[in-house]
């Protein structure tokens, strides 16, 4: 397993992280015992970075992860979030940020987390973040409730502006579906900007929210029809060559060494082993270029997420 520093915390995290939304049944039913075995097996195989949120399974993912980590907590770099609690339920007030962490700590059966993040910051006006949420994060960090603080969201320009104007120093920024063969604009501005300042860049959804899978995207996927058609072409091309599209997409994301860690949803020990193979097989440069060409005009066409004014 490869490890990289998490900002300036002194902690090293695995380049492949455990996305624990699966434990909250976000991508279909996950058996409690199977999920617990996946957590333990991931640790055995060297995955030490776990990311969760009260939004995932509406607190179920945190509860199950906390249960699975009993006796294993000291081996884990644990990240959770606050601010988003349901599809359309957001609250970034300082009091709610503080209370959210206490609630998460109870569910996770611990007295602190290594990383505490604001979840999907594009759904709120920046003034609330600057005046309430971000100062509350810094206060919790000073109190020792977390080692690092960060923000998460989809619109890269908005995330970068928040890093620039934040009233407190931030340790990490997480985005998703922005380091894939379909959309690879993470490295255009946000990644070099953050990397140069010692801010860890975290990546999620390397399968482009399910578009780069044989079963295709979920019905709620927000990408344009042309983007989803390009995804189907990629999956079909890879299948014709005997290649697994999700594995190729993960290898694509892992090839970007400036990304601190890429989170993948895992629900079984078998999936842990399957995904770890991506670290053993670097992506062939020729195949990478072929996928980029196949995307064509559909490449780097993000959708609108959150408030329209946060999506320039």
Query: How many helix segments?
Result: 10
Beta-strand portion reads 15-25%
Order of strands, main sheet, comes to 3-4-5-8-9-10-11-12
**Top-tier CATH class:** Alpha Beta
The H-and-E topology, N to C, reads as: EEEHEHEEEHEHEHEHEHHEHH
Number of E-state strands: 12
Q: What count of structural domains?
A: 1
Q: Which residues form runs of ≥5 with pLDDT under 50?
A: none
| Biggest sheet descriptor | 8 strands, parallel, barrel
CATH architecture: Alpha-Beta Barrel
Helix coverage percent:
25-40%
Structural class: alpha/beta
**Separation of the first and last Cα atoms:** 38 Å
- Overall outline: globular
In CATH terms, the superfamily is NADP-dependent oxidoreductase domain
Chain-averaged pLDDT = 98
**Rg, please?**
18 Å
Textual characterization of the structure:
The protein has 312 residues and is α/β, with parallel strands linked by helices. The protein has a single domain (3-310), classed as Alpha-Beta Barrel (TIM Barrel). It is 37% helix and 17% strand. The protein has helices at 32-44, 60-68, 94-108, 126-142, 156-165, 190-196, 225-240, 245-254, 269-276, 285-295; strands spanning 3-5, 12-14, 16-19, 49-51, 77-82, 84-86, 89-90, 113-118, 146-152, 172-176, 200-204, 261-265. The chain has an 8-stranded parallel barrel, surrounded by 4 helices. Strands 1-2 form a two-stranded antiparallel sheet. The chain has a two-stranded antiparallel sheet with strand order 6-7. Helix 1 packs across helix 2. The longest helix is centred in the middle third of the chain and has 17 residues, at 126-142.
